[in-house]
Amino acid sequence: MILTLPSFAKINWTLEILGKRPDGYHELRTLLQTVSVADELTFELAGQGIEIHCDHPDVPCDETNLVHRAATLLDEFTGAGKGVRITINKQLPVAAGIGGGSSNAAVTLIALQKLWNVPIAPRDLFSLGAKLGADVPFFFIGGTCLGVGRGDEIYPLADINEEFLLLVNAGIAVPTRDVYANLPPELTKQSAVAKMPLSLEAAYAAIARPGEPLPLSNDLESPVFVRHPLLIEIKERLKRTGARGVLMSGSGSTIFAIFDSADERDGANRDLSNAGLWSASARTLSRAEYQRSLGL
Ligand code: ATP
Fold first, then answer.
1. Among 9, 8, 15, which residue's Cα sits nearest to residue 250?
2. What pTM does this model have?
C-alpha cells in the first residue's frame, strides 16, 4: 500500500508575543493560514523500522527528522509495530517560517494512522502533535486559525481569502530557537495575561475586523531584520512592485506579499526570481480544500 499526500505551508498574517511565561515559553497570539505551496510525502508499508528518504541537503534523514519523530511517536503510542518507507519531496525552503517541517510531521501522523490501521482519537492526535512542535496542531485543521498559548492552541476562524500571494525566500535559514532566544526585552515581559483576549470573538476582532484590510504585523520581524538586512531590501522591493501588504512569516526568513492581480504578482515573481531568490506564487487554501486534500 502506498499513500501520497501534499504537505502544505502556512503563513502568519499576524504574530504577537504577549510575554514570557513562568515556564520559559513565550505566550503567542497568531493568525495562521494554510497556503497552496507544498512538499509531497509518500508513505509505503515496508519491513520493520522507519526509513526516510529526502535529497534536500539541509534535511536530515535520521531520527532527528520531524517525520521520523512523528512516526516513532505514533508507533510508541499505538504499539503499531509496523515499518514504513517515507519519501519527502522537499519543495519548501527549510527553517523558513512557513512550517515545512511541522506540516510534514502533521501529515505523517495523519497518513500513518491509515497506513498502519491505528486510528487515534483527535484529542490524542493533538497532544502527539504538540509534543513535536508548536506549529504542528494547526496542520490538523488548516484554513485560517487563531493560535494562542505556544501557538499550539488552535481555534478555527472564518477563512480569509487572498488569491494573489507571493512567497520569497533568500536562502537565509533562521532557526526558530535562535529568534526566541534573542528577543528584545520589551517583548518578553511577563505581561501576557493583561493582553490576553477575553473571548474568541474579542481575539478575532482585535486581529481582523471583517470587511477591513488585514492589519498585518509580526513582532519577530524587526529583531530578525536587524540581523539580516537583506530581508529589509526584499520587503522594500516587494512594496515597490505594488504589493498591498508585505510581511515576514513566523520566525522568518520567508517574506510574503499580497497583490491585487495575477499580473502584478507575476511581475513581482519575475523580478525576484531574476534576482536569484526562491519565489513562489500561492493563494490561500481554505479549510475545506485543505482537509479534502488530506482526506480528513
Ligand atoms: P519551518 O521551515 O518548518 O517553518 P521553522 O522556520 O520553524 O520551520 P525550525 O523550527 O528552525 O524552522 O526548523 C527547521 C529545522 O528542522 C532545520 O534544521 C531542519 O533541518 C530540521 N528538520 C527536521 N525535519 C525536517 C523536515 N521534515 N522538513 C524540514 N526541516 C526539517
1. 15
2. 0.94
